[in-house]
Amino acid sequence: MDLAFTAEELAFRAEVRSWVEQNLPKELADKVHNGKRLTRDDMQGWARILGKKGWLGYGWPKQFGGPGWNAVQKHLFEEECALAGAPRIVPFGPVMVAPVIMAFGNAEQQQRFLPGIASGEVWWSQGYSEPGSGSDLASLKTRAERVGDHYIVNGQKTWTTLGQYGDWIFCLVRTSTEGKPQTGISFLLIDMKSPGVSVRPIKLLDGDCEVNEVWFDNVKVPAENLIGEENKGWTYAKHLLSHERTNIADVNRSKRELERLKRIAKAEGVWEDVRFRDQIAMLEVDIVALEMLVLRVLSAEKSGKNSLDIAGLLKIRGSEIQQRVTELMMLAAGPFSLPFIHEAMDAGWQGNFPGGTLANAPLAANYFNMRKTTIYGGSNEVQRNIVAQTVLG
Amino acid sequence: MDFDFSDEQEQLRDAVRRWVDKGYDFERRKQVVAGGGFDRAAYTELAELGVAGLYVPEAHGGMGMGPVEGMVVMEELGRGMVLEPVAQTLIASALLAGYAPDAVQADWLPRLAGGEALVVLAHQERRNRYDPSRCDTTATQTATGWALTGQKSVVPVGDHADAWLVPARTAQGVALFLVDRAAAGGAACTEAYGLQDGGRAAELHLKDCPATLVTQDGAAAVQHGVDVGIAALCAEAVGLMDKTVATTAEYLNTRKQFGVAIASFQALRHRMADMKMQLELARSMSFYATLKLNEAPAERSLAMSRAKVQLGQSMRYVGQQAVQLHGGIAVTDEYIVSHYFKRLTQMEMLFGDTLHHTARVSEQMEETAGVFA
Prior knowledge:
The complex is a heterodimer of chains A (393) and B (373).
Chain A: H1 7-23, H2 26-33, H3 40-53, H4 71-84, H5 92-104, H6 107-119, E1 124-127, E2 143-147, E3 150-157, E4 168-174, E5 185-191, E6 197-202, E7 211-222, H7 233-242, H8 251-268, H9 274-303, H10 311-333, H11 363-369, H12 380-392
Parallel strand pairs in A: 1-4
Antiparallel strand pairs in A: 2-3, 3-7, 4-5, 6-7
Helix pairs in contact in A: 1-4, 4-8, 5-6, 5-7, 8-9, 8-10, 9-10, 10-11, 10-12
Chain B: H1 7-23, H2 26-34, H3 40-49, H4 67-79, H5 86-99, H6 102-114, E1 119-121, E2 138-141, E3 146-156, E4 163-169, E5 174-180, H7 181-184, E6 188-194, E7 200-215, H8 218-254, E8 256-257, E9 260-261, H9 266-292, H10 297-326, H11 336-348, H12 354-364
Parallel strand pairs in B: 1-4
Antiparallel strand pairs in B: 2-3, 3-7, 4-5, 5-7, 6-7, 8-9
């Protein structure tokens, strides 16, 4: 049993660190380190840089042009990117739909869609949740009716993250109402420029429109855009969830944000306040424990010995910690987190932020925004159901 | 970066588990408690397994093993709430092997390894709470060596120990001494009592008591001993919490009310999920403590403090909720869960509680993330 990474793993990490340092634009890292608003170009620009290196699809197998990294390498790559201040990779293309296309799509679909995803040129959105179908996703109603060589799609998706930038959307749609709800769902790829597709941004409590509603009004979708077989879509979607994904814990980003919290605490004079400092110390211990949990899962995956069925714990704890970091940052700024000036969260704003510390401008918005983490990706209550199943049967 | 156990470590685990399952069930433990909280015969059986010599170097007749083996053994002992203080033997072995003059090592380590000598760390005083650098016990140099005067409290199996490792203050600062009970005679008196978990401890009164110097660097040695103790305690707690969670799950699946197993009630299912969370966080930090036990002192002690902060929260939650989910039977003496709970509670107060270690982490916190990476 050994805490240290191997020499090969350390060499790999050094290689990634060096490449990120040379290729991550400084202005972009500054934005991320300071919680500034990211533009479409920011996010897609980084995707394109990674794409050129062949690292946007960093989890892809070699067979499909991926680097073929193991679990530890993927973790180290994620960590180096997060610590350096790289923007989060928009996952819908490279992390979510691509593996489904690789596993269940045909050769034509793979040739048609994967290059655009790998390069970062094509922006994908996820069409899963509906107003009436959140935790109970299988109850979804967006209908796809087969007519000749097309599907006619009618319905509505919601919470479509960054859908306003999406070129394509992968959707779970209902193709049958017989039998159990899960057995009537299909996995369909839809061009968002198709007539009948409309996107309406949803303004969130942080003042920005991170998510959208997407309406489908008699949208004609070629039958070649169906992945695999009709009514098998639910199993394809579940396939994604079946690998242990340690990045769900987001521990790397939480480490980076912990450092940001300490900077803010110092700037606000609460680093010397024993009581506030103790709160940071407790959070630091929580992050160490989460990191150790992640490393245990990675080790189990690496050795193939004891598979640790604790993905739910990573999501629950990871999300709680993400929230706590934002909470303490906001509390550190105290009353000076309260001014809400929308433009102040853009990089390069030249105004006077009340209190004089621009770093405080996004803190409350960050805190408000992160309340989503315990809700999405399987709410923490649903995750607790799943964890309980592993203990109680 | 590897968290698998070797075949030898798995075999060690199996051997101790078999002894606990067959030789130290809840009935035997009740008898040990009734007999005062310590059974020399049980300790001897453990010594025969090699457990007493785990940290003793091979040159002195021990197994010469390391922190991971210690963790495995303590987890298994924790599952059975074994009262015989193997953790103290680990501490004493590490302190003697790490700090004592050769003659003292040669005199004591082989007997430690064989189980003939039980040596415990007596660092707690009435007024030093969790800070071993506060030490009111004094040591004065005599013609023949050293003489200690003072009182140590809550000394594990203090009245059965063959020797105590005693911090005492000299003119230069805190030093660590070995007091041989046989040699001390009336200069060392103990008042023994039972503990909340059924174990045994004693007040140790020293009056001009002859002692052998282990090291002048008492502060460093005691801190090291405490750190070995924390790592052992974390592992023991993980084994016990694992057992507690499993026992609770079995109860929920068996107990029926309103015509159904109470395991079907979501509130209770979520509580079990939270208990599992605390168990796995604790296990993760127990691994962390074990893997940091051989680091340089500052890094080692910080790691132990971090671990104890997590373990403190986990032990309290798992213990309290195990009782809650069992309902009335868990507050009876007859049923085992109240004993799990009492042991988990007691461990909070050993080697520094959660609040104490939070302060240590806080004081030493760096500006960087300061975590593993």
